[in-house]
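Quick review question:
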């Protein structure tokens, strides 16, 4: 089966800055906003957006300097800056709170928004969120090394000399559990996009800047630490992890369970770091349940105990492979 085409995009002015946003057709009353991960783009959500387009009007953003979005005027690629940009986008496109989705870096950005701007978030879906974890692992170590002054620039320049197809295959091998799930058209699209990005003067700086911003969050202390902010998220939350994630340790699901007040966990036994791309129909099924329940709620936060009971059931289902 041929994959669906990427959703059309347009530039959105959020006040002193423009963001490129891809959107599904209007119609549904509810709005969803999708935030990609490091070195990703709005197209990371194409298939999931399609599965949910009957339920929510989807808007996938290219973070500043990523995808088709220009570099930020102030050169700030921190998680705080990304969160401010996405929050401004939500205020620009929606009259009420949205269903916020985040993958990896986008998960960290989404947690910060949900904690600091609860008025903007009706529900929160996190796919392999890059929340602080100092356990040594190969994938995160590569990200950390890319932030070292001079070394990161040298590595980016060396990588840019490799053919785009080779770099895309290496990236997908890191992010997917099963490369056989990648349609050839998606590989071609990704290689064409990387070739376009290679021609942008700020492409390397934006990736390294966002990586540095993410690594800085791992060492942040105090009330603004992302785990402390997660504990203040009032929106009902779905956390999805892939068992074969090489970048975010799926064992972080246990900490998410202890931290988010209203959380349901799903562990996908055959997925990697980008489950929304690898098994979009399964992520959509879980997200649809969360969105439907949040739409049907009366607006009360409910009891923590009942929310955790729902999370426990979701986690149990994932362990038996549903």
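Suggested answer, residue by residue:
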């Amino acid at each position: 089966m041929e994959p669906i085409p990427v959703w059309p995009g347009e530039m959105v002015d959020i006040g002193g800055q423009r963001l490129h946003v891809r959107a599904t057709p209007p119609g549904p009353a509810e709005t969803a906003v999708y935030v990609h991960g490091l070195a990703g783009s709005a197209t990371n959500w194409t298939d999931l957006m399609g599965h949910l387009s009957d339920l929510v009007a989807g808007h996938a953003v290219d973070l500043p300097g990523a995808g088709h979005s220009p570099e930020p005027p102030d050169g700030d690629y921190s998680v705080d800056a990304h969160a401010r940009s996405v929050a401004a986008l939500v205020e620009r496109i929606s009259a009420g709170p949205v269903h916020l989705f985040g993958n990896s870096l986008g998960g960290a950005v989404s947690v910060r928004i949900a904690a600091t701007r609860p008025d903007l978030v009706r529900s929160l879906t996190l796919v392999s969120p890059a929340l602080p974890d100092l356990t040594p692992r190969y994938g995160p170590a590569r990200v950390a090394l890319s932030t070292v002054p001079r070394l990161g620039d040298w590595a980016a320049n060396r990588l840019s000399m490799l053919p785009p197809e080779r770099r895309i295959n290496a990236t997908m091998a890191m992010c997917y559990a099963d490369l056989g799930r990648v349609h050839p058209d998606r590989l071609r699209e990704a290689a064409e996009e990387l070739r376009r990005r290679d021609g942008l003067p700020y492409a390397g700086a934006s990736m390294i800047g966002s990586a540095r911003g993410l690594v800085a969050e791992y060492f942040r202390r105090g009330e603004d630490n992302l785990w402390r902010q997660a504990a203040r998220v009032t929106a009902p939350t779905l956390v999805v992890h892939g068992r074969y994630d090489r970048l975010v340790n799926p064992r972080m699901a246990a900490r998410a369970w202890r931290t988010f007040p209203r959380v349901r966990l799903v562990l996908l036994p055959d997925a990697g770091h980008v489950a929304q791309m690898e098994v979009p129909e399964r992520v959509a099924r879980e997200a649809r349940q969360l969105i439907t329940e949040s739409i049907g709620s009366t607006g009360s936060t409910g009891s923590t105990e009942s929310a955790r009971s729902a999370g426990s059931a979701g986690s149990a289902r994932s362990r038996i492979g549903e």
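Why it works: The longest strand covers residues 121-127. The CA atoms of residues 87 and 113 lie 7 Å apart.
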